[in-house]
Design goal:
CATH topology: TIM Barrel
CATH superfamily: Glycoside hydrolase/deacetylase
Helix content: 25-40%
Largest sheet: 6 strands, parallel
Structural class: alpha/beta
Distance between the termini: 15 Å
Number of helices: 8
Radius of gyration: 17 Å
Shape: globular
Strand content: 15-25%
Order of helices and strands: EEEHEHEHEHEEEEEEEHHEEEHEH
C-alpha cells in the first residue's frame, strides 16, 4: 500500500502565539493581532474547489473558533477532525482537566457544525504530550497526526499506548541535504517547488504519506502579507501539481480514516 493522505489545517489567519495568552492571534498587518479568519475562509473555498476538480478527498483539522466563523458548508462531505479551540499550545495548558475541556469543546464544535463526530486530531503547532494522547480516546478520537517522523521506505502507522493510531507527517533531507517536511508552507512562500515534494514521496515504498497545508496560506504569505491574484493562482496550480503527480506516480489518495481502515484490514 502506498497511500497519500492530504491534510488541511483550518485555523485563524497566519496564527501567532501571544505572550501571556493561551489563544493565538493573527500576525499584525497594521490593525493589531486580534484573530482574523477571512484568508482562512477564502483559502478553504479554493482548496475544496480544487479537491472536487481533481477527485481527491482530504482530512481537515478544524480549529473550533475558525469553524464557527467560516462557511462550514464548504466542508460538507469532508472528513473533519479537531485542531483545538483557539489554536492553543496544549503542552502549555496547566492541568489535565483544562486540556480535556479544550478537546471536548473542539469535538463538540465539529459535531455541531459538520454533523459528524470527529475521530482525527492534530495538535496546534504540532505540539502534544502524553496527557493529550490519553484524553483523546475519551472522545472517540482514534487517529493522531501531531508528530513528525523520519522519512523512510516504510511509513507504517503505529498504535500508541493510549490506543490511538499515530499517522505522522514525514520529514527528511532533499538531494542537497536541506531539511524538508511534507508541509507545503515553503512552497506557498516560494521556497520550494512542487517537484521537491514528489521526490520526497517517491522514497516511500509502503505506508502512508501524510501531506499537509493550511487554508490561509493559499492566499496570505506569513512573510509578505496578502498575495496577489497571480500568486494565489500559482499556489493553487502548485497544489494541483503536487496532488496529481503523486497520484500519477501510483500513490492512492485517501482520507486518514480510509488509510486507517485499510491498514487495520491488512494487519488481520
Amino acid at each position: 500500500m502506498r497511500a497519500l493522505c492530504f491534510t488541511v489545517d483550518l485555523d485563524r489567519d497566519v496564527n501567532t502565539q501571544i505572550t501571556g495568552k493561551a489563544a493565538a492571534g493573527s500576525i499584525d498587518r497594521g490593525h493589531g493581532a486580534d484573530p482574523r479568519f477571512s484568508s482562512s475562509e477564502k483559502g478553504l473555498s479554493l482548496i475544496t474547489d480544487l479537491l472536487d476538480e481533481v477527485g481527491v478527498r482530504a482530512t481537515f483539522f478544524a480549529e473550533a473558533s475558525t469553524l464557527r466563523k467560516v462557511n462550514a458548508n464548504l466542508l460538507s462531505g469532508s472528513e473533519v477532525g479537531i485542531h483545538g479551540v483557539d489554536h492553543e499550545d496544549l503542552t502549555a495548558i496547566d492541568g489535565i482537566d483544562n486540556k480535556r475541556a479544550i478537546i471536548r469543546e473542539a469535538a463538540y464544535a465539529v459535531n455541531d457544525l459538520i454533523g459528524k463526530a470527529p475521530v482525527c486530531f492534530r495538535a496546534p503547532y504540532m505540539r502534544t504530550d502524553e496527557e493529550v494522547m490519553n484524553i483523546l480516546p475519551e472522545f472517540d478520537i482514534t487517529i493522531d497526526s501531531s508528530r513528525y517522523i523520519e522519512m523512510s521506505k516504510g511509513l507504517i502507522p503505529k498504535r500508541l499506548i493510549s490506543g490511538v493510531l499515530e499517522m505522522p507527517v514525514p520529514e527528511g533531507r532533499d538531494a542537497k541535504g536541506k531539511k524538508i517536511s511534507a508541509f507545503l508552507w515553503p512552497m506557498h512562500e516560494s521556497k520550494r517547488r512542487p517537484e521537491d515534494y514528489l521526490e520526497m514521496a517517491s522514497a516511500m515504498e509502503e505506508g502512508v504519506f501524510v501531506l499537509a497545508t493550511h487554508t490561509w496560506h493559499i492566499v496570505e504569505s506569513r512573510e509578505r502579507g496578502m498575495m496577489s491574484p497571480e500568486e494565489v493562482g500559482s499556489n493553487i496550480s502548485n497544489v494541483r501539481k503536487v496532488l496529481e503527480d503523486m497520484v500519477d506516480s501510483g500513490m492512492r489518495p485517501m482520507t486518514l480514516v480510509e488509510a486507517k481502515n485499510l491498514t487495520e484490514t491488512k494487519s488481520r
